Q: What sequence folds into this?
């Protein structure tokens, strides 16, 4: 994205909304800021309608702060809790029908390569566990088989939180929800392992309780997707509304899940990706 | 009339942990001059994650009167 696109024409500064002026004056575009700089610049997401204490909102905030070049990124969103806050995001984003995000991102990435052959444009497909793990699993896995060069990020809140709490494939075994009163009967889908087997060069699991690690993983995933092939990140997003705990306990719950082993932080890196990561770190 | 978080400037040591645990964007700002945080009460949703996460117990929830 060219700077001139979002800069305000002279004489119109006063009639633009305050949030827009803030974004132009101290937004993160072209500045190479990261998670450690949060609180000192205008963030790319604004007042969203998600619940108090939502882990998804926190994850999204951290992801948007850690994108390597937000001005050249396009986000593909899909139906779910995550889609409620896409209207407040100051990056180009597209809403696709439920589960279709990876098919749309495939076409978008190919079109951007033809339209801007001399520029690097990142495409990031973001969706909930319903869109990526259940309904869109066919599209997601085929984009990995084909080796499409974009990143897939899953906000895993372990339920269909937007529609009242049905169980999803990513819910833990035995989880009791509003619309799953007898408890879930089968195990959580091993999607990071499926991603590795399906051809992702990088697949990782992380929680928002570790912001620096999340930043590192998102950066790696986006940079590797530019060069090598598909990458996948799964982020645990505790949901206070459907799992019935206090909003103030959501980070404690995340840490408890890590300790009990129900949600392990892991990273699968292919040999080619490992070489490239070494190269990136040397360049730093 | 609503509840929102408030910082005690004397206790705040500027570790920025509250900024990394807040799900709401642009609520907690870091003031570079005195190295303390400032909370924008109008954007706060009162989830108390910053209160739980603050190591020096500098943040509390207060009742704000409508102005």
A:
């Amino acid at each position: 994205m060219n700077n001139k696109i979002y800069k305000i024409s002279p004489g119109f500064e006063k009639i633009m909304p305050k949030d827009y002026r803030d974004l132009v004056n101290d937004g993160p575009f072209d500045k190479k800021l990261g998670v450690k700089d949060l609180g000192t610049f205008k963030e790319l997401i604004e007042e969203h309608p998600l619940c108090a204490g939502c882990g998804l909102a926190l994850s999204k905030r951290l992801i948007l702060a850690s994108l390597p070049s937000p001005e050249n990124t396009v986000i593909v969103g899909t139906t779910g809790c995550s889609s409620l806050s896409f209207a407040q995001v100051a990056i180009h984003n597209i809403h696709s029908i439920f589960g279709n995000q990876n098919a749309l991102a495939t076409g978008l990435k190919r079109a951007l390569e033809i339209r801007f052959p001399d520029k690097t444009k990142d495409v990031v497909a973001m969706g909930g566990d319903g869109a990526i793990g259940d309904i869109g699993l066919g599209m997601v896995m085929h984009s990995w088989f084909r080796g499409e060069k974009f990143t897939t990020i899953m906000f895993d809140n372990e339920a269909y939180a937007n529609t009242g709490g049905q169980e999803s494939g990513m819910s833990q075994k035995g989880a009791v929800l509003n619309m799953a009163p007898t408890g879930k009967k089968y195990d959580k889908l091993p999607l990071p392992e499926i991603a590795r087997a399906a051809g992702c060069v990088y697949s990782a699991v992380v929680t928002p309780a570790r912001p620096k690690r999340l930043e590192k993983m998102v950066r790696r995933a986006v940079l590797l997707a530019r060069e090598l092939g598909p990458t996948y990140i799964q982020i645990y997003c505790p949901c206070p509304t459907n799992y019935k705990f206090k909003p103030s306990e959501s980070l404690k719950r995340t840490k408890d899940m890590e300790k009990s082993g129900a949600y392990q932080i892991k990273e699968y890196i292919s040999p080619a990706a490992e070489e490239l990561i070494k190269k990136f770190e040397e360049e730093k | 009339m609503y509840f929102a978080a408030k910082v005690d400037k004397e206790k705040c040591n500027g570790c920025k942990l509250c900024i990394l645990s807040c799900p709401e964007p642009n609520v907690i700002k870091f003031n570079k001059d005195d190295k303390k945080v400032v909370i924008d009460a109008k954007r706060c949703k009162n989830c108390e994650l910053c209160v739980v996460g603050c190591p020096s117990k500098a943040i509390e929830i207060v009742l704000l009167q409508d102005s």
In short: Chain A has two domains: 1-32, 51-283. Chain A touches chain B through 28 residues (CB under 8 Å). The longest strand of chain A covers residues 122-128. Chain A is about 40% helix and 15% strand.
